[in-house]
Specification:
The chain has a single domain (3-173), classed as P-loop containing nucleotide triphosphate hydrolases (Rossmann fold, 3-Layer(aba) Sandwich). Helices cover 57% and strands 13% of the residues. It has helices at residues 3-7, 19-30, 37-45, 49-56, 58-73, 91-100, 110-117, 131-149, 161-176; strands at residues 8-12, 33-36, 79-82, 102-107, 152-155. α3 (37-45) crosses α5 (58-73) and α5 runs parallel beside α6 (91-100). The longest helix has 19 residues, at 131-149. The two termini are 24 Å apart.
């Protein structure tokens, strides 16, 4: 595996799979900074993801997402990057992820995702829609794309974020030569 690919660890998966929480925990375990692309985009745009979707539409959001991804994957310091669920929809993003990071797919079944995302109403793609129907549709569109780019897949069903992050850290230690200091 090329050394540049090992510099960054990127988490992909559906909304509600735990990318942000697990990314933060994994970053601490690895002594890597954590970058949540949605937070990066919101900070750069000066507005929430929901507002960007409402005012500018999904295409503009995806353009901002691609720029943020490229920027973070070009960083010289090692990062754990939590992506948005739709980052895999653009082939250019998939190519970047494959070339410049170790990609982990946090795979989660639809019923678990529905339970998790129903706790908050801030998901732009779910606004005014049935979560089960929408997540089933997104899974049909994205599951093969996640599988295509994943260097490692972990099922997060019935697991706490702390357990997932520890499991990932143990798996990554030998692959990436990471030491917890």
């Amino acid at each position: 595996m090329p050394k540049e690919k090992l510099r960054h660890v990127t988490l992909v998966g559906h909304m509600g799979s735990g990318k942000s929480t697990i990314g933060s925990l994994l970053g601490k375990l690895m002594n890597y900074d954590h970058a949540d692309l949605d937070v990066v985009i919101a900070n750069q745009a000066g507005r929430s993801i929901g507002v960007i979707f409402a005012e500018k539409g999904e295409k503009v959001f995806r353009d901002l997402e691609e720029q943020a991804l490229e920027s973070k994957l070009s960083a010289s310091d090692s990062l754990v990057i939590s992506t948005g669920g739709g980052v895999v929809e653009r082939s250019s993003n998939r190519r970047l992820l494959q070339e410049k990071s170790f990609v982990i797919w946090l795979r989660t079944d639809i019923k678990t995702l529905v339970r998790r995302v129903s706790r908050r109403s801030t998901r732009p793609l779910l606004k005014g829609k049935d979560p089960l129907e929408m997540l089933t549709k997104l899974d049909e569109e994205r599951a093969d794309l996640y599988a295509e780019i994943a260097d490692l897949t972990i099922d997060t069903n019935n697991m706490k974020a702390s357990n997932v992050s520890e499991l990932l850290f143990d798996s990554l230690k030998s692959r990436l030569g990471v030491e917890n200091e």
